[in-house]
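All the exercises in this workshop are built on plain-text protein records. Instead of coordinates, the fold is spelled out as a row of discrete tokens. Once this layout is familiar, the rest of the handout is easier to follow. The record below serves as our worked example for the rest of this section.
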Amino acid sequence: MSKLPRRAFLIGVPTGYLAAGAYGIGAPVGDKHDNASTFSSVYREFPGQNPKLVEEVVRYAHFDIDAVRELITDRPALAKASWDWGFGDWESALGAASHMGRRDMAELLIAHGARPNLFTFAMFDQADAVRAIIEANPGIQRIRGPHGITLLTHARNGKAQRVIDYLESVEGAHVPQTNEPLNDEEKRAYLGAYVYGSENDERLTIMEMRNGMLGIQRADRIPRHLFHLGEHTFHPTGAPSVRINFRLKHSSTAETLTVHDADLIVTARRVE
């Protein structure tokens, strides 16, 4: 068996065996064999890819090429993996490399089967390809990448000067997201923990991020930036259709927050 990448979580199932129940005991299928080996546990999403590894490869694709190489060498399909950071902010490993300007990372992922797109071409400074795609699909330059990052920003992060020069002349390639300013007193009105269930992780924390924006975090997951739309309403990064509304008590401190995402409505009450 080939070596598993760092913190790998699973484990092959011997041929002719099926995981029983969730996930603990192998049950033989077909003829029995005296030398049939027992098998270890499998993750709940099997035969889908292990979500722990999917999250890892997308996260490492932002900054750690050695970790990515280790993961995709044994499991090349991870080069095509995508992860939802929250509220539908989907990102592929190649998407991460593209907005970080990591050409070396992108080339490694493509060599293992990752699918390049307009954002990748922009980062690679492939001006002819970018121009041809935009001219064939008017308006496509307005589509944002992961985390709401614009097409022009991908080119700038890749120091792709030919694409930068072209996109600066294309309307809609770099439209800033709405983010109404908040002073320190206004921010304090929202900060704190909000509970929406009885489990320990059924809480949302509103915090101030290092760049001064507010963020929302569930338990120990990675926090998401919040863009202020006014009237105590925000949307999380990479999910402009989601609305997070705060109800203030005595016009100075938030009492509840409500997440509206299509037919999902979650209301959490402030406890801290």
Summary: The radius of gyration is 23 Å.
